[in-house]
Design brief:
It is a single chain. Helix content is 42%, strand content 14%. The protein has 13 helices and eleven strands. The protein is globular.
């Protein structure tokens, strides 16, 4: 799909002529966007499809047998392209997205965000650490009324295009609002990019001439004060182990009170012991264990997870850091000092245990309102 053409979406011949005139006059693409109510219906139908697949339900009537079989074949093969993208991980991502794609949820979310009157092309540079991790950004661009130019990560290059094809089959107008860039990005008016901190240094310079929303590396922490039940501690295991700990919302540091018994934590993690049987996770666990033992660095070990005392937010896969705080004031000061590096905080007074990987639509990455950015930048363009 060429960039810089005029994009039409379910409009009359007269309107097409107007769009063409406007494009010629302004020398830039004029986008006639999909009606928002149609978009909500299409996304809701996609949500039902994803939920049905993830939960092993019957094929919804909104998708053909061939499309259903193609989706299944893609999901089943994905682990061969990326060993982290297991069937369970993809199903988990499908369920999370389907929770967003309920009509009432979408309508409530969009109440505060009218579609732009100045549609533009927004380039999305997506990460590939989790399956479909960039789907929320795509939704934001489309529901804002803009066109999405998507640059996929090589680690997650197949799932998003597959869902977009299903979305187009549900609402053909989307074909003119979504494009994928294989090589160099061009023809964009704004950029949303997510990557490593090193990537951000490059992005800041490269995209300095256009409105941009850049996200670097963050991670998450959990607060344990000793009042947690064993059930709550077990739920915390989901925040640690889902997606094998590779997401920015995965807990990598435990902030524990001086009196907290770490044996309680290890006992609560027992239900997740099978994770070490995943080849890539197991390799990381074995490697980090060997390195720390050879260097005589003190660690705690339950044969599938290592604990190391450290204030460092970032722990390697197969390991968690833990830091004992003296009092609530010290805890508060630590969280404030590290707030620009923390994606979310799990704990009794924070995000409930077991829900870190289930953000709501308005739980924007890095605390930056993506929809507000998309609405504001277009107003500033002439």
């Amino acid at each position: 799909m060429a960039i810089g053409k005029i994009f039409y979406a379910n409009i009359t011949t007269t309107e097409r002529m107007f769009c063409a005139i406007a494009n010629k006059k302004n020398r830039k693409a004029y986008f006639c966007t999909v009606n928002r109510s149609q978009m909500i219906s299409a996304f809701a139908a996609l949500g039902l499809i994803l939920e049905a697949y993830a939960k092993g339900k019957a094929r919804p009537s909104s998708i053909t047998d061939l499309e259903w079989e193609s989706l299944d074949a893609l999901v089943q093969k994905e682990q061969h392209f990326n060993g982290w993208f297991t069937l369970e991980s993809i199903q988990m991502a499908f369920i999370e997205i389907s929770n967003w794609l309920q009509e009432d949820v979408l309508q409530e979310w969009l109440t505060s965000y009218p579609p732009t009157e100045k549609p533009q092309t927004v380039a999305l540079i997506l990460p590939g650490n989790l399956p479909l991790v960039g789907f929320h950004d795509l939704m934001c661009v489309l529901f804002s009324g803009h066109k999405a130019l998507v640059k996929m990560s090589s680690e997650d290059a197949r799932l998003m295009p597959a869902l977009v094809q299903i979305l187009i089959s549900l609402a053909p107008q989307f074909e003119e609002q979504i494009a994928f860039a294989d090589l160099k990005l061009s023809g964009y008016d704004a950029v949303i990019a997510t990557g490593s901190n090193n990537s951000m240094l490059h992005f800041k310079q490269y995209f300095s001439g256009v409105p941009h929303l850049l996200r670097g590396h963050r991670t998450s922490v959990a607060v344990l004060d000793g009042a947690e039940t064993q059930a709550e501690l077990t739920l915390l295991g989901q925040d640690i182990f889902q997606y094998y700990g590779r997401g920015c919302r995965n807990v990598t540091l435990l902030l524990v009170s001086k009196s907290f018994d770490l044996n309680r934590f290890f006992e609560a993690m027992v239900p997740y012991a099978d994770i070490v049987n995943h080849k890539k996770y197991g390799n990381n666990y074995d490697y980090n264990k060997a390195i720390h033992l050879m260097n005589q660095v003190p660690i705690l070990d339950n044969h599938f997870l290592l604990l190391k005392e450290s204030q460092d937010l970032n722990s390697p896969l197969g390991m968690l850091h833990y830091y004992r705080y003296d009092n609530t004031q010290e805890l508060k000061e630590f969280l404030i000092a590290k707030q620009d590096q923390i994606q979310c905080v799990v704990g009794r007074a924070f995000i409930p245990y077991g829900s870190a990987q289930c953000p709501k639509l308005n739980d924007y990455a890095d605390g930056i309102d993506t929809m507000q950015f998309l609405g504001n930048f277009a107003k500033c363009l002439s």
